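DATA SHEET
Item: assembly model
Revision: 1
Owner: S.N.
Input lines:
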Amino acid sequence: MLQPGLMMDRPLLLSSVIEHAAAQFGEAEIVSRETHGPLFRYTYAQCGTRARKLANALAGLGLKGGDAVGTIAWNNHRHMETYYAVSGSGMVLHTCNPRLHPQQLIYVINHAEDQVVLFDATFAPLVKGIAAHCPMVRAWVCLADAAHTPTIEGVANVQSYEDLIAPCSDEFAWPEFDERTGAALCYTSGTTGNPKGVMYSHRAIVLNAISGCNPSILSLSPADAILPVVPMFHVNAWCIPYAAPIAGAKLVLPGPGLDGKSLYELMESEGVTVSAGVPTIWQLLLAHVEQNGLKFTTMRRTLVGGSAMPRSLIAKFMDTYQVEVRHGWGMTETTAAATMGGLMPAAKGWPAEEKHAHLAKQGRTMFGVEIKVVDEQGATLPRDGESQGELMVRGQWVLSSYFKADRSPLVDGWFPTGDIATISPDGVMQIRDRTKDVIKTGGEWISSIDLENAAVAHPAVAMAAVIGVKHPKWDERPLMFIVRKPGHALEKDEILKFLETQVAKWWVPDDVVFLESLPVGGTGKVQKGDLRKQYGSVFS
Amino acid sequence: MLQPGLMMDRPLLLSSVIEHAAAQFGEAEIVSRETHGPLFRYTYAQCGTRARKLANALAGLGLKGGDAVGTIAWNNHRHMETYYAVSGSGMVLHTCNPRLHPQQLIYVINHAEDQVVLFDATFAPLVKGIAAHCPMVRAWVCLADAAHTPTIEGVANVQSYEDLIAPCSDEFAWPEFDERTGAALCYTSGTTGNPKGVMYSHRAIVLNAISGCNPSILSLSPADAILPVVPMFHVNAWCIPYAAPIAGAKLVLPGPGLDGKSLYELMESEGVTVSAGVPTIWQLLLAHVEQNGLKFTTMRRTLVGGSAMPRSLIAKFMDTYQVEVRHGWGMTETTAAATMGGLMPAAKGWPAEEKHAHLAKQGRTMFGVEIKVVDEQGATLPRDGESQGELMVRGQWVLSSYFKADRSPLVDGWFPTGDIATISPDGVMQIRDRTKDVIKTGGEWISSIDLENAAVAHPAVAMAAVIGVKHPKWDERPLMFIVRKPGHALEKDEILKFLETQVAKWWVPDDVVFLESLPVGGTGKVQKGDLRKQYGSVFS
């Protein structure tokens, strides 16, 4: 019979994260861009104080443990306070993606049963359009003082955040409860059907955040300043709002200022050492830096995820600007990152190109998560760096079922990610495609992502997308879409010739369509479904 | 009503630590000094393989989940395999301190109900003396191959580790069970009464180990090589045998070679970047380095704990050898470190002396642990850096009760440490004394540790100890014991005059006794109880 451990039985709760920071790193700073422009600056101790005031305010509105509170907000300090006040009280923080279609926003707010929604003034027009369709919301709170809280025509119950918390006590006894309690809820931006909710537990978030501080992941200490460009409304901003206070790192929140110039200036003025975002953001940032002959004086590391980072971008960061690139992988269903790339000590002597190729991979699993790739029959494929199959994931911060869903999405206890990947013998995972995007031709697979990356390496290509199109002989053949860089000429023959130098001959697309833009969805990803609808049978 | 999180419910188990390392960092090295001298070198993948073989071997001996397995061993690779095979199987790893008195060793082996004991050949004489008194032990396994396994007179059931595991399969399905299950058992070296057992859970160890990888604690990544001088037989070697595989750091195990020369040579030849040990070890190491005009070419950081590190030693490491010193605090009852010192970025411009003084403090709590200091009535004292009281601790890796004990040692859910400490407003804790060592004089307290540190700063002092001696007028007065450095002359007047320049006048000891040595116990600490017995009433 197993023997019981004789350790204190204390839950891992998010309230202890902010209280830890307030007690250990009370003077460490949070710097936040207000929605109306200026920078706001305070400490973790003050953040804790205001989170407790908000917890009292929410209780005053009649909310209790288990109730859902929505946010439609930028990365800013009031959003941060909301993170802790809501989850710390045992309520559920439902971060809404403002890029969702208004109909989907209405759906998720009602599905989550949000009782209160906190929003940034930017999104007042959005609130105006949806409020009447969200009958459960008893208060719409603008994350601003009274002077910056708009009146919204047709929405009676709008109030200012500062007015709401001002009269409240800054003492609040955070409740203790099971660490498996739901803390936060985020919906996928499913391209088909309604968004699906993922309910993160306190335990899952805390475990990811502690691990996230480690040198191979975010690497956070009091000597760091981290700027999450990844939005707090999506996948917990990769748990950075939780990891930074655990580590005592300075937290820099960019608010709505997500253009290259704003980000660069904030990074420089606040001594940012680490940042995290999707490839598009880094593209915009580098464009600004290049065009203005600037350099990074404090930035040491960028973390990238969400979609594949082009190698050319990795090369520029590493070689031109001496900023380390770490490519991670995670999804709404995995709380935050599940794997993280990076170079091992043995890579020191590698040629630059080999380094870039390695850094384009999504890396090793964090401790607490396991992965495998399986074939279409579900059999585990070898870790040989070549066998492609669907990526399966399980672990401490992986969902078990969707919110209010009947059927478990798991297969033998593993979550099927819908990604096609390879795993090398040393555990390094590389995303090759989405299961629905991979092109099956003559019994072989072509990775649409690899083809797109090859095209983007051409100096005249701004964006590229590849879909599989039904073909009478080969089952499917690739069709490429290209958006040219402004002022650049590029024709089909030239790009096809270029691709012949980059990929196997049978990978070269059968045709190229030049577009002015590509359809991009709520989380910044190209909507290949739209392309397929229009072009999916041009070869038949 | 609280809402349940919808995340996978997977336990934090030690078996997943070694399997994580084998899969992610399979080629990372473990280098181990054999008990008979040479270096042994293999990988985490091979360590995992052999741990699984040992798990099969233990099952073959008839052991099952919950059974206890003892070790009397150095820091080496077979001890490491035992860590994982035993705990991973759901058994209890009982690490015995070979420095315990044989009577105490017999007591702990019987109290823990060890079924098998694995020992290093060094300790064969010890085994010979105790085996007959440990009737529950069905096998004594020497951590060696057959050639290096001694026959022990009077002990029939001795076998070689290599012979034991050789025939076993390297496949073993680690069982899944509650993460609160007991994984390891370590006894305090209580100076009064029988040793008391602390039963660590899988959860407690894993949480400490993940947190231990963070930049502010051990700071471990695949770029690091860590050498734990802290013994694997005591307080889980500060969880380094668990943290290193989580981080993929190279692990260097020094075996019995704990003298300055052996440690220095191993550090240099294996590119060690981080080490951890008690002050005595660092004193020996620095003596060797100084005497031979050496320097550290790869060492970046030493972690120190167990007792107070003299400032002079901190200064030498920092300023002469450019090795960072981090002073931690923990005890058998806290699994590993609970707090860790270090300099914040704001300390960059401080004068060297201020840095050293700060680094002599035991630092901030790791996330997952809370501390407070209380007065003799149990009331919480202010965090003002001056109010001294008993240090109370609670958290994820703090014990709830001793093994097989009736009475809980907790007070309102907190563990009273028996240490006297202060906490500064920024959360930095400093141990000032043990409750039983603090000298109460005229209603005020004198810290014996501070007095000892002041004395050790004198160039002729090798060791110092201070006790409180009953005094008719002042209740207690300090009496100091000094061991001179070889070849140095020092008399009472000189040291007292020196102390007057270092501490308040009323702290200066009433008398000084010069000794050839101080009584040191099983964990390397001066046994003040022995001094008190002999000298405790010399002033009355």
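QC remark: The mean pLDDT of chain B is 94.
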